[in-house]
Amino acid sequence: MNSNKVKVNKIQLYQTNLDKIPIYLTRKLTMNSETIPLSAVIILSILSFFGAIKVLNVTYRLIGFFYRHFIRGNQNLYARYAGTQQAATWAVITGGTDGIGLQFAKDLACQGFSICILARNETKIISKLAEIKDVASKAGHVIQTAYEVVDFSKQYHIEDYAAIVQRLSSLDVGFLICNAGAAAVGDFTNLTNEQVERTLVADALQYVYLIKAMLPRLLLRESQRSGLLIVGSGLGSFPCCGWLALSIVKSLQSFLGQGLNYELRHKVDVTSFECGEVVTQTNNNPPNFFRCMPDVATKAALRDMGKDAVTCGTWRQEFRMWSRKTFMTINIQNKVFYDLSRDMFENKK
Ligand SMILES: NC(=O)c1ccc[n+]([C@@H]2O[C@H](COP(=O)([O-])OP(=O)(O)OC[C@H]3O[C@@H](n4cnc5c(N)ncnc54)[C@H](OP(=O)(O)O)[C@@H]3O)[C@@H](O)[C@H]2O)c1
After folding, report:
1. What atom in ligand 1 is closest to the CA of residue 275?
2. Average pLDDT, the chain
3. With a 6 A CB cut-off, is 101 part of the ligand 1 pocket?
4. Which of 44, 110, 193, 267 has its CA 20 to 30 A from that of 309?
5. Which residues contact 212 (CB under 8 A, 6 or more apart)?
6. Residue 119 alpha carbon to ligand 1 centre in Å
7. CA-234 nearest atom, ligand 1
8. pLDDT digits (tens, 9 = 90+) for 102-136
């Protein structure tokens, strides 16, 4: 009986106190605003302003991430870049005989592009072009093929590239993919002079000179827009110790792509593909959560072609790149990658 009475009284007490909370809070706030110094109010306002900007920035990027990977679908690039004439529209792909380049060639052939490959080994080029033609015909397209045997590590002058482009003058090139590369890896001090030169010539000069030589052709096409895809690497987004030669040429490629994306926006779509790990002959490791097969990587890159200045490809690779940039300082990155490269390259010796 007694305990019930006590309970009732307690509830009544809470209810009466609840009524008083707003009055109490108002008093407290008024008192505080009188006591908070002006400097603290200014600092708090500045912090809230920058906090709000950061929140907006993160929200914008998150929306972009979800849109890119889960809403934006495949594109018909042939419809976008094909000429208005009946003649074939060509995709020229450097290093189209293997790995990522070969997969791009197959994907574009399946959309209707005729394929021209620039690589070193003629027998291999001919056999891969037959394979590409076969894949295209299964997708319902009769395509033409062409090739140039060229070793980019021996093309030192811009005139060499002008000559290559001249030899392709009969083709209506609507899409150029600069992809060929085999940069030397390992401690920069231990690379031979020949390795450094080959990397710089094949991976840096090729991209700059071939694009420079091909641009007038892409710009002068009467019909629609043209496409230019630059296959770089995520390792070009920071000075990657242990892979420094690769890292510097990839950063050059990325800058070139991003700059041209804006300069040429009226006529040519330019996208820089900051590729993550892909299983190929140069990265001969089994696939895992972050390391994908070439068809997965190229599908994601072609989805973003002309839509974004830079793409990392799949959502996993974009997430991996974002986490590295967000959670690792440059010193930690240096240590992790340098130690990793030492393990990999010292073990291989
Ligand atoms: N695989 C990855 O994990 C990865 C990651 C990031 C970025 N990437 C980039 O993706 C691109 C393609 O790499 P990949 O892994 O697909 O390589 P890949 O399987 O070794 O294929 C390289 C292609 O480039 C050609 N090539 C190499 N050196 C050449 C030269 N000096 N002159 C002419 N052609 C040459 C090769 O053809 P021939 O040997 O027949 O001449 C081959 O068709 C490279 O730029 C690479 O840096 C790859």
Report:
1. 6
2. 90
3. yes
4. 110
5. 158, 161
6. 10
7. 6
8. 999 999 999 999 999 999 999 999 999 999 999 99
Query: Which residue has a Cα nearest atom 46 of ligand 1?
Result: 181
Q: Where in the chain is the domain with CATH 3.40.50.720?
A: 76-348
Helix H segments across the chain?
A: 2-35, 38-66, 77-81, 99-111, 122-138, 158-167, 193-199, 206-220, 244-263, 294-304, 315-327, 330-348
Torsion angle defined by CA atoms of residues 23, 29, 33 and 39, in that order, rounded to the nearest 10 degrees: 180
d(CA 232, ligand 1 centre) in Å = 11
Give yes or no for residue 18 having a pLDDT over 90. Answer: no
Distance from residue 221's CA to the centre of ligand 1 (Å): 29
Tens of pLDDT, residue by residue over 202-224, are: 999 999 999 999 999 999 887 68
Residue 49's pLDDT band (cuts 50, 70, 90): very high
Kindly report the backbone phi and psi dihedral angles of residue 192, in degrees, each rounded to the nearest multiple of 5, phi listed first: -80, 160
| pLDDT tens, position by position, 148-201 | 999 999 999 999 999 999 999 999 999 999 999 988 888 899 999 999 999 999
Beta bridge partners of 292: 278
Residue 177: CB within 6 Å of ligand 1? no
- Decide if domain 76-348 falls under CATH 3.30.70.100: no
Q: Give the position, in ligand 1's atom list, of the atom nearest the Cα of 203.
A: 45
Ligand 1 touching residue 182 (CB < 6 A)? yes
153 lines ligand 1 (CB under 6 A): yes
State if residue 313 touches ligand 1 by the CB under 6 angstroms criterion. no
Write the CB contacts of 128 (distance below 8 Å, at least 6 apart in sequence).
96, 97, 98, 102, 105, 117
CA-CA distance, 264 to 234, in Å (whole number)? Answer: 23
Question: How many other β-carbons are positioned within 10 Å of the β-carbon of residue 28?
Answer: 10
Cβ–Cβ under 8 Å, residues 67 and 92: no
Is the CB of 190 within 6 Å of ligand 1?
A: no
Strand 172-178 with 268-273, pairing: unpaired
Q: How far is it, in rounded angstroms, from Cα 89 to Cα 111? A: 11
Asked if pLDDT for residue 2 goes beyond 60, the answer is no
Q: What is the pLDDT of residue 1?
A: 42
